[in-house]
Amino acid sequence: MSLIEDILEVPHGCVIDYVIPKKEVFEAANLKTKDKKIFTDIVKQIKWCYKFDEDTLRISKYTDDVRNYSEVELININLKYDNVQKIGVGKFKEDEKIDRVVDILLRFIPYPIILTVQYVNDLKFYGAHIRESKADSSKIVIDGHVMSTNWMDINNLSEIEEDFISKIQYDCLDKNDFYDFYDSYITAMIQYDGSMTAGGTVNLPIEEISKIYDEISLIDLDIKKIEKKIADENNFNTRLELNIEAGKLKDKKEKLILKLKGE
Residue 136: what pLDDT? Predict the structure, then answer.
């Protein structure tokens, strides 16, 4: 059984319990050799755990000009333990490959997905709103960006992690329609990310948390790029200038974290 099935309370009628063959994903998503190899190397099993739809729940479909949320899926990816290397708390050598697998699944399945990735007792949650492609209405695209939590040790959850798990229980999700149902999951992720960044509960409006967190994420990317340049740079003066630039970005990040904390 996947970890997610141990920690979520879901109506029995939503249970699917179907293992999706990797070959089925390769064909349906029309994967190139490089992506097939990533799946083959690190993915042990893809399991369709639950389906939330009108046939089993009293929740309405949601449709607008670009979105058709008729159901929500919960899919779990189990990683090959021997082929994935943990290199620190919440970090894996194959994190980029894991994110690539997630991105492919979120883009080719035409329904919003609560997606979890499992490694022994560690679990990571992913999600993204989707919409029709403006260029091709038969295709879907990610609306915004893919969101994720940190890796969580299910046997040793922090207070913030426990709060997140409680918010995504079926009884706590919005039942107005399937857009609101899925959006309440995304909202819980935003609140979690904000709280983890701030180091405690954040009481700001969800839109403000999302905006600040996105700004911090972009700054983190810029800092990584600069630190790579510093590592590759031999000229002392250039290294000094890059360090000053990185320092300014870190100061900006700290101010945003204080803003998250309401200070």
Answer: 80
